[in-house]
Specification:
Length: about 250
Amino acid sequence: MDRYQQMEELHRHWAPPPALAASTPRTVVLAGGGVAVVVLAGLLFVGAVAAIVGLETVARNQAEDRRQLREQGREAEATITRHWREGNKENRPMVAYEFDWEGRTYSGRTHLPLRVWKTLDAGSPFAVRFLPADPARNRSRDWEPSVLPVWFPFLVGALLAAIGMLLVYLVRRQTNLLREGRPAPGVVTRYSQAPHNKKNVHYEFRLLSGGIAKRKSGPTRRVLPAIGATVCVVYDRDNPRHSALYPMDLARLA
């Protein structure tokens, strides 16, 4: 018996769950997972706005600080007080320094190009630039720290909003499938590994036309059906590529 005959025999003896046998559109509500995903999407949209506003403020302040130091700053000779490399993945070469202005001592720290950093040590002279009205605002005279580009806040905001939109799309897709989709018998064919110790469930199901579609569901951590087990698949009548195993994670029938 070939695969088509097996699926035909399965379809002949299979009946959908009673809730799916009702006429469409079915009444659908969000499951617990769907509520959590919608809340997360909302937080991402709020975070996108906050990121744009906050990072744009940082970028604007950094640009203004750089402009003032260029136009109004004065130079002084500082002394390096500490010479080290940061204990992180970047392992950036760093120096800390102190300088005197009008009888008071001010300090600062900055990272330097490695070739320059290697020529310095604690006690080495170090040229700095500072604002006379606020000497605590100072930097290396010869190496300006990088500032956020003007486009960066909008990139971060767009990425967060895009992730939120993707989550909303996933919820809408499941609710629409459950509301309008056609139930069909399917057979689990295999599993595949997914990130975070989850698995994808690969399955085949019979279309109304008699054809066989192959899709996968997941990733998921829930109890997996056995390979070869019969499962209920809900698929889009107009686009069978959109399908899901029933019951679903994000939506349920009211």
